[in-house]
Design a protein that fits this description.
The structure holds two protein chains of two kinds.
Chain A (H helix, E strand, L loop, with lengths): L3 E3 L3 E4 L5 E7 L5 E8 L3 E10 L2 E4 L6 E7 L2 E6 L8 E8 L13 E2 L3 E5 L1
Parallel strand pairs in A: 2-11
Antiparallel strand pairs in A: 1-3, 3-8, 4-5, 4-9, 5-6, 7-8, 9-10, 9-11
Chain B lengths: L3 E2 L4 E5 L4 E7 L6 E7 L5 E8 L4 E4 L2 E6 L4 E6 L8 E8 L8 E2 L3 E6 L1
Classes of the chains: A mainly beta, B mainly beta.
Chain lengths: ~120, ~110
């Protein structure tokens, strides 16, 4: 079974703090993703990475950065946390497409981190 | 811009009923569609993935269909159980970025014993 783990289930931080959210997957997936989920807004992609040291912005990258030094680990960094970054953060991973006829593979999600910034 | 809609936002049915959840998308140029389940406060669990060339996929009591030309997918749940209570989300991938999923808002399903 694919396993995607996130470092914390619940996290409370103060405004202005630097926050690190860690995600680890054990299936040798090339792609890793960070989403946030908010009531009424659904899931929105923050950043994704398709290889070590490679990253691309998603739909809402402002206020966030990411780091992928090893294939299995993808970190989301809030440089200076703000109250509007209070949210549920979800990490996901998937294989990179191989061959023809298959555009992409299933994404597997971690359990989520509920971040509260006060 | 691709938009995904799930109606209704919430559904409550008695145990044992068969039910259908709906998902519609505005741009039919998709690569595939994925259905997920989310329990309260938890992450997403992948249920089924349908490639654009497929019409349906089945897993146990779940059957997902895809009509790409009309921009619709349905998730059929047979003989519903209280343990099926969760939020169900659909998401699509397409040429806007093959690794990027566009999600619907979800349908919150409650199965009453």
């Amino acid at each position: 079974d694919v396993k995607v783990t996130q470092s914390s289930r619940y996290l409370v931080k103060r405004t202005g703090e630097k926050v690190f959210l860690e995600c680890v997957q054990d299936m040798d997936h090339e792609n890793m993703f960070w989403y946030r989920q908010d009531p009424g807004l659904g899931l929105r992609l923050i950043y994704f990475s398709y290889d070590v040291k490679m990253k691309e912005k998603g739909d809402i990258p402002e206020g966030y950065s990411v780091s992928r030094e090893k294939k299995e680990r993808f970190s989301l960094i809030l440089e200076s946390a703000s109250t509007n970054q209070t949210s549920m953060y979800l990490c996901a991973s998937s294989l990179f497409p191989r061959g023809t006829g298959v555009a992409s593979y299933e994404q597997y999600f971690g359990p989520g981190t509920r971040l509260t910034v006060t | 811009k691709q938009e995904v809609t799930q109606i209704p936002a919430a559904l409550s049915v008695p145990e044992g009923e068969n039910l259908v959840l709906n998902c519609s998308f505005t741009d039919s140029a998709i690569y595939n569609l994925q259905w997920f389940r989310q329990d309260p406060g938890k992450g997403l669990t992948s249920l089924l993935l349908i490639q654009s060339s497929q019409r349906e996929q089945t897993s146990g009591r779940l059957n997902a269909s895809l009509d790409k030309s009309s921009g619709r997918s349905t998730l059929y749940i047979a003989a519903s159980q209280p343990g099926d209570s969760a939020t169900y989300l659909c998401a699509v991938r397409g040429p806007w970025g093959a690794q990027k999923l566009v999600f619907g808002q979800g349908t919150r399903l409650t199965i009453n014993p």
